[in-house]
Amino acid sequence: MTTVLGLIGSARKWGNSEVLARQALLGAQEAGAKTDLLRLSDLHIEPCLGCMRCAIKRVPCPLDDDMPALIERLRAADAAILAAPTYILGPPGAVKLALDRMLMMIPYLDELAQQPKPGLALSVSGLSPWRGVALPFLITFLQGFGFTRINSLACYTPGPGEVLLDDALMARVHDLGRQLVQGPTISPPAANVCPVCHSDFFTLSADRATCPMCGLQARIESTADGIRLAFEDPTGYEGHWTPRGMRQFVEEWIIPSGQRFLAHRHEIKARRARLEF
């Protein structure tokens, strides 16, 4: 039986994020799945030290917290739903703390490549102009921890639990949960939105736009209707956080940067002396 793990990125119990996650899980249950629910704020997750031991030496993280247990829950799930509010234009700290430890997945890259699993991301904000970048970060979380984004949705509702009054949104989220189990179909993005991670903010250079979340590029074209982003074909695209993209990042950047640091560490230490006070 398919197991769907619902992750709540909010510390508010029965807030809009939890309500939406539960609604999607109900849809998954009706499609025959077994479901589980986990609040990230209930876990003890320490800030990443940036030591790179997990990536370079492939040894367990030196931090003694709940991150290994979270990874095991994610590895055991066949699909995942991540729902979180938008705090100051981005995801809450509980989501970011776990996301910052993503390199702990390096030992499982072969496993992730062989077993792609569907994921659903749900961001919540009060107003559309204040949606910020929470949704792309939630999608990055799912991708980095082994789930392919099948669907994602930015939801707008103000007060705690008020999403329950939006029958149309509740019905849509229920259907997305069901689709996660029943032969999911990837939802197409809107115009000028990255087709890989649904980001709608880009870095610009000459006539090119680059998605900072996954690295996909697009040509900037001027049409009668305004600016259009003509994206590269995303079919088979190996973005930053696919297993292949992560492996390339580690082997071509992280490991060489560690070797470069070791070669210069004595000079760095000497130059650091004048800054010690």
Structure description:
The chain has 277 residues and is an alpha/beta fold. The protein has a domain at 1-187: Flavodoxin domain (Rossmann fold, 3-Layer(aba) Sandwich), CATH 3.40.50.360. The chain has helices at residues 16-30, 53-57, 67-76, 93-99, 109-114, 134-144, 167-181, 243-272, and strands spanning 3-8, 34-39, 79-85, 117-125, 147-156, 203-205, 208-210, 217-223, 226-231. The strands form two sheets. A five-stranded parallel sheet has the order 2-1-3-4-5, with helices on both faces. It has a four-stranded antiparallel sheet with strand order 6-7-8-9, with no helix packed on it.
CATH class label of the domain at 1-187: Alpha Beta
> Helicity range of the residues?
25-40%
Oligomer: single chain
| CATH architectural arrangement of the domain at 1-187 | 3-Layer(aba) Sandwich
Number of strands: 9
Strands side by side in the biggest sheet: 2-1-3-4-5
**Going by CATH, what is the homologous superfamily of the domain at 1-187?**
Flavodoxin domain
- Low-confidence stretches are none
What's the rounded overall pLDDT mean?
Answer: 90
Report the C-alpha radius of gyration, rounded: 20 Å
The shape is globular
* Pattern of helices and strands: EHEHHEHHEHEHEEEEH
Q: What do we call the CATH topology of the domain at 1-187?
A: Rossmann fold
Structural class: alpha/beta
- Major beta-sheet overview: 5 strands, parallel
Number of distinct helices: 8
User: What's the end-to-end separation, in Å?
Assistant: 60 Å
Strand content: 15-25%
